[in-house]
């Protein structure tokens, strides 16, 4: 008998019909001889409606009360899923985050899990019941309801899997797992059967938003293998796990694309200690998400610093730079919009040389100019013109042998 | 400094604008120098939507899960009211029933309050905060969310008032308190400034559904005076309290009317022990609400038993009577629909004689026939034809001096 934690997102439980479908899947998992904990999100749309209600009574709703409000979304779903399972002849019991012993700090709306006392959950499982657990929420030491912020339900599932030492954690979503690239961009993209935590993290930070990095990091830290799969069909998904030697035979696991970026370049930055730090501190204070950073010596004693920001944060970035560039005595700030970031990710590149060269060659052959280059141990990222982004993704996807053969496509 | 418990029903918090209005009232009460606990219901319509959701996933939703579902209604309101107060510069904190220490038995969907540990509520009040408490809900010893059934939010307010020894409990609703009769029937009806628990109970059981009897009984048991008043204006309401000698100067406090009744008569019931018991047991098992019961000797050794039931339960009553009348060997069952029940209620009738005579006279003078009569120490009830009900109510209201003078009307 295996102990499985499943997680169903808001789309999977978005209507009462879908809830019945999810209930059936959960019950089938139990009837196959497993103990099952199912973590569920708020029905899609519900959270936004609650946020609208809050906005109607307050410009700046108290975070503590926001959590009380938002937590009703998942509480509604756990009750409905449990009822649906009971209706089908199963025995399910619902748990709010607090009831399940998920204790967090008091950082309302973005609380961090500190500890899980899963005793009552385990008792119910041992009594033959299915546990339906509200995702995204916990309780603080003060007994207040807290929520975990973005991607919170995934985190609940992975943390609960770690707490009960589950044999498997399944993250059900509306896609068939993680793909080698976005199939809307690269029609020959394939599902990745297995991926390491680190690759998944690099993919997530490069635009493949199947899951928030936070949950993957948590899974990595506690060694919880998990599977990302579709709640609407029975297709196999993607297993995310510790890396093992076999994984290195694939050089590049996937390619990801992030659009709507802007490139900012600061010319003639005096090459004195503290210049770069002053720049990025000013951007941080303005809440600008800086991504790729590249620095080059431009002329004796001066550097050229380039970085990317999301296009809709460009104005904020330019604003933040005004006073700091004056203060450090640098040259003018240039910016370029219509930029895309293309990343190739794979732990295999650690043991294979020439990967960067292969990628740059392929782009050059296709006549695509590279603007910036940034690399990590398992990722090569370039920025290119957004107009050439799709073509670039297809070219890189093909050159690393990721294209599906005709029979697979 | 007084400690006040206020209760706002579903209509009073039915929209975000009304929530802001309620927030303002609560904050004003505090700014007048009081400590305030406000009990709020689910926004009107929300509970029905939740019930519809449950019905969509299950024919017979688990009661335990129904409570988890329904409790989200009040939880949403406490968050919104707290946010609205905080937005206005106040300091409010929300409490679910469980957080407020309202412990109940495990009779899900109709739980009974067993105990309230109001320590954390008191701490917040002493810290200068306003406590916004979810009505209608509590927590069982097993840590499960429970709900209190119909009128549960009133009960929460009165029970919390008893627990914290509040100076006053205010039940805000959509009417200006309790009236001498339904103003739609008797245009000269007036608001009753003060009424005893017992009178209120008799009014409630006779069709004046301002509050459920259960909450009034609880208030009586624990000696909690409370005021029923309107949340939409600042009019004075009705104070419900222990009776005191002054109250007896008014003979009849109010008149109430209950329509859509049916009268059932069983002829020739053998006058043997157990006959009546067999009849009413059978009706009880069929969940028929039997009201006025009148028994007369019809002929030597036989009785005629009459009683009223809500018209929509007549078929069930007739059905339940079939086998029992056969078994006890009684005569045929007759029934009459289109019946109304008119009651005159007042503790003053205990010390005034001739009250029944005055009422019957007035009805006779108006040419209205009385079908059945039933009395308690503080109530005289008659059944009459529904067609004459409005006229009968006006006549009785007038004869006991309840009509407003022209200047009051």
UniProtKB/TrEMBL annotation, chains A, B:
Domain of life: Bacteria
Catalytic activity, reaction form: L-aspartate + ATP = 4-phospho-L-aspartate + ADP
Residues that hold ATP according to the record: 7-10, 173-174, 179, 184, 209-210
Alphabetized UniProt keyword annotations: Amino-acid biosynthesis, ATP-binding, Kinase, Lysine biosynthesis, Nucleotide-binding, Repeat, Transferase
Residue numbers binding substrate: 47, 74
SUPFAM superfamilies in alphabetical order: ACT-like, Carbamate kinase-like
GO terms for biological process, alphabetical: homoserine biosynthetic process; lysine biosynthetic process via diaminopimelate; threonine biosynthetic process
Family indicated by similarity: Belongs to the aspartokinase family.
Name of the molecule in the record: Aspartokinase
Source organism per UniProt: Sulfuriroseicoccus oceanibius
């Amino acid at each position: 008998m295996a102990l499985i934690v499943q997680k169903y997102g808001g789309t999977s439980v978005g209507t009462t019909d879908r809830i019945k479908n999810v209930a059936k899947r959960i019950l089938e998992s139990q009837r196959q001889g497993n103990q099952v904990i199912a973590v569920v999100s708020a029905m899609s749309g519900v959270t936004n409606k609650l946020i609208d209600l809050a906005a109607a009574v307050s410009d700046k709703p108290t975070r503590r009360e926001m959590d009380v409000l938002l937590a009703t979304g998942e509480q509604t779903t756990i009750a409905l899923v449990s009822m649906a399972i009971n209706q089908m002849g199963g025995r399910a019991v619902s748990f709010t985050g607090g009831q399940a012993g998920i204790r967090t700090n008091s950082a309302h709306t973005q609380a961090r899990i500190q500890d899980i006392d899963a005793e009552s959950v385990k008792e119910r499982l041992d009594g033959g019941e299915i546990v339906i657990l509200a995702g995204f929420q916990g309780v603080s030491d003060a007994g207040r309801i807290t929520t975990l912020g973005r991607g919170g339900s995934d985190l609940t599932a992975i943390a609960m899997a770690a707490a009960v030492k589950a044999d498997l954690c399944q993250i059900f979503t509306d896609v068939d797992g993680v793909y080698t690239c976005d199939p809307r961009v690269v029609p020959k993209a394939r599902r990745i059967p297995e991926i390491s935590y680190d690759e998944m993290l690099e993919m997530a930070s490069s635009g493949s938003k199947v899951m928030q990095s936070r949950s993957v990091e948590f899974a990595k830290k506690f060694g919880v293998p998990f599977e990302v799969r579709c709640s609407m069909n029975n297709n196999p998904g993607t297993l995310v796990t510790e890396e093992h030697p076999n994984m290195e035979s694939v050089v590049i696991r996937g390619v990801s694309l992030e659009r709507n970026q802007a490139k900012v370049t600061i010319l003639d930055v005096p090459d004195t200690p503290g210049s770069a730090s002053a720049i990025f501190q000013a951007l941080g204070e303005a809440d600008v998400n800086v991504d790729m950073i590249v620095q080059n010596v431009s002329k004796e004693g001066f550097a050229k610093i380039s970085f990317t920001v999301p296009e809709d944060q460009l104005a904020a970035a330019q604003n933040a730079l005004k006073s700091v560039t004056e203060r450090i005595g640098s040259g003018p700030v240039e910016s370029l919009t219509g930029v895309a970031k293309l990343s190739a990710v794979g732990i295999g590149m650690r043991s294979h040389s020439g990967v960067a060269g292969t990628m740059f060659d392929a782009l050059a052959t296709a006549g695509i100019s590279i603007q910036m280059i940034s690399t990590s141990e398992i990722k090569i990222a370039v920025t290119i013109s957004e107009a050439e982004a799709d073509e670039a993704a297809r070219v890189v996807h093909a050159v690393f042998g990721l294209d599906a053969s005709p029979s697979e496509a």
